[in-house]
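ok so I'm stuck.
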Amino acid sequence: MNNLIYHVDFDFDIEALKKECEDLHKKNLHNNTWEYSEYGQNHLDVESFAIVQENWGHMPVGRRERKRFLQHFDLWEDDYEITNSKYLKLHANTMLLPHVDGHPCSLNIILSEDPGPINFYGKDYQYKSALV
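replied:
not stuck anymore, here's the structure
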């Protein structure tokens, strides 16, 4: 269970990402009834969790930053145009059980000014951007 978090040093446009995320949530483009039960998360309190996915709304900043990051590290492939980014909003102390969702990892970028740690198997991890 070592190396669950890989810190990423990249100059993301945090202010633009934050604004886009806030705007999308204000427009109620989030989905609090996302089918998380397929990953064994049917206990999830939907009031503590909200997701905006690129194919559910317009996310030019998220899309741009994802592509810029992947191109910078020479990871971009043309079929990534059809994949999507997500803005997840988790309230403090929201618990997501370990799960498999078809992705080998996730690039998480914390947009909060005062983020709490995430906890994997009893160990806390603090980061601003990381592969999880």
